[in-house]
Specification:
Number of strands: 6
CATH superfamily: Aromatic amino acid hydroxylase
Number of helices: 13
Helix content: 40-55%
Distance between the termini: 42 Å
Number of domains: 1
Order of helices and strands: HHHHHEHEHHHEEHHEHEH
Structural class: alpha/beta
Largest sheet: 4 strands, mixed
CATH topology: Phenylalanine Hydroxylase
Shape: globular
CATH class: Mainly Alpha
């Protein structure tokens, strides 16, 4: 099987479910390694080590615009134009609508404050500026409060086709457009709320749900399937693999997804397609209530 393109834009950015300490688990339950941890056994880029927030991050209008260089803006333009071209006919309507709602374009890096303002008007979400990869507890707390954690620095020229570290192109281009879609925005907040209560095997099931929805999800758009997962949207190789016969497309099912393993270093052999984002909200809520993660 070919090596994944995830590393271009994603690999370690959303390391949500790290191994729990044994005192967080019942004595009869062993710690569960996530897919990321299994991959990490081969070594981790120092930029990809999760960190705790040392102070409350700036949110929305509090965020100061960095002094971006001309090269930073050029890198954004290159990546934005490349992906928008690749995604024509493949990405979901919700993605393209979100790009327009947020005001993203090829003119240069957008500011987090402006993106946050547009996102808040659409769905009540805001953006919080973070320094890098967050520990799961900080990340999920922000998501549960309808705040999306985002970096504000972009990869260098030498990493345009491959970066193992988090950067704002994946955050902005991959994730933010879908957070202007009301039902998906509600789902992601519920996901954060449920994840804060998860223990043991529930954490592994949530990791898989995150992977096959937020990162690698598909949704029916009219008579075709459309991409909404950020791990596909921001990768130049995952798009063709997913949409041109490289992956088995299976109807969305929380039961199937929570038992579906995956490999972060491989192009995905199995993907799941929703009928609608309302289906995602309804079925996730039912699953989380049954697991006693939501009321």
């Amino acid at each position: 099987m070919p090596t994944s393109a995830i590393g271009e834009d994603f690999t370690w950015h959303h390391l949500l479910f790290m191994k729990q300490e044994s005192n967080h688990l019942p004595a009869s339950e062993e710690p569960v390694l996530s897919a990321y941890e299994r991959a990490a056994e081969n070594g981790v880029d120092p930029r990809c080590i999760p960190q705790y927030l040392s102070e409350t991050p700036p949110v929305g209008e509090e965020i100061i615009i960095p002094d971006y260089t001309d090269q930073d803006h050029s890198n954004w333009t290159h990546l934005f134009c490349r992906q928008m071209d690749i995604l024509q006919g493949y990405a979901s309507d919700a993605f393209f609508d979100g790009v327009e709602t947020l005001g993203m374009n090829d003119k240069g890096l957008p500011s987090l404050a402006e993106l946050s303002r547009n996102m808040f008007e659409a769905t009540g979400w805001k953006i919080g500026r973070i320094p890098g990869l967050l520990h799961e507890s900080d990340f999920l707390k922000m998501v549960s409060q309808r705040i999306f954690p985002s970096t504000d620095y972009i990869r260098g020229v030498e990493e345009l086709d491959y970066t193992p570290a988090p950067d704002c192109f994946h955050d902005m281009f991959g994730h933010m457009p879908l957070l202007t879609q009301p039902a998906f925005a509600d789902y992601y907040q519920m996901f954060g709320q449920a994840s804060l209560k998860a223990k043991g095997s529930q954490r592994l099931m949530l990791e898989r749900l995150h992977w096959f929805t937020v990162e690698f999800g598909l949704v029916r758009s009219g008579d075709k399937n459309g991409i909404f997962g950020a791990g596909i949207l921001s990768s130049k190789d995952e798009v063709g693999h997913a949409m041109e016969g490289g992956a088995e497309i299976v109807n969305f099912s929380t039961d199937r997804i929570t038992s579906q393993d995956y490999d972060v270093w491989r192009l995905q052999p199995t993907l799941f397609v929703l009928d609608s984002f309302e289906q995602l909200v309804t079925e996730f809520r039912a699953w989380a209530v049954a697991e006693r993660l939501l009321n």
